[in-house]
Design a protein that fits this description.
Strand content: 5-15%
Helix content: under 10%
Structural class: mainly beta
Strand order of the largest sheet: 2-1-3
Distance between the termini: 11 Å
Shape: globular
Largest sheet: 3 strands, antiparallel
Number of strands: 3
């Protein structure tokens, strides 16, 4: 599963963990997040995230 990083604050969205504090369960791919999902740290939108190169 691909991880994505917020370009504004450095938060890394890990699909294996999801975003449980905001109702996003484990194994939720970044592409499957709701369009209005925001970074839980700084509130940035999905457009401000880029794929993490591993």
């Amino acid at each position: 599963m691909k991880k994505y990083i917020c370009e504004l604050c450095g938060y890394i969205y890990d699909p294996e963990i999801g975003d449980p504090d905001n109702g996003i369960g484990p194994d939720t791919e970044f592409e499957d997040l709701p369009g209005d999902w925001e970074c839980p740290i700084c509130g940035a939108g999905k457009v401000d995230f880029t794929e993490v190169e591993e």
